[in-house]
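Page 37, continued from 36.
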């Protein structure tokens, strides 16, 4: 059974930091690229960060570059999103996504809420 479980969401003040985690099971984690997406209220889901299966390639959306860091621990089947200098526009539900493009498989987590407010 495939599972992606996000955790770490919380309410923080502007300028604060959070680290999100996504722990997976049911598939070979190291063979999957991982992404974080977010969805703000009444907005479409948007891509935030990407990391290749072996961690050799990382990319960020322009809105978070320099503030967010994606990483993974393949021994623990977990991907992380370190978020610094959070701003109100970072508020939303954050989802982790796994993809193995060569075989056309992808999975989504259930999301974790991040709220940035004073």
């Amino acid at each position: 059974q495939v599972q992606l479980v996000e955790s770490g969401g919380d309410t923080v003040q502007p300028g604060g930091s959070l680290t999100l985690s996504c722990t997976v099971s049911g598939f070979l984690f190291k063979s999957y690229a991982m992404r974080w997406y977010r969805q703000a209220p009444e907005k479409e889901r948007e891509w935030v960060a990407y990391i290749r299966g072996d961690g050799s390639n990382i990319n960020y959306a322009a809105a978070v570059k320099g503030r967010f860091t994606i990483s993974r621990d393949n021994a623990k089947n977990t991907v992380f999103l370190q978020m610094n200098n959070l701003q109100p526009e970072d508020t939303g539900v954050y989802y982790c996504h796994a993809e193995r493009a060569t075989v056309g498989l992808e999975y989504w987590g259930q999301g974790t809420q991040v709220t940035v407010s004073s």
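The first strand starts at residue 3 and ends at 7. Flag for discussion at group meeting. The two ends are 40 Å apart (CA to CA).
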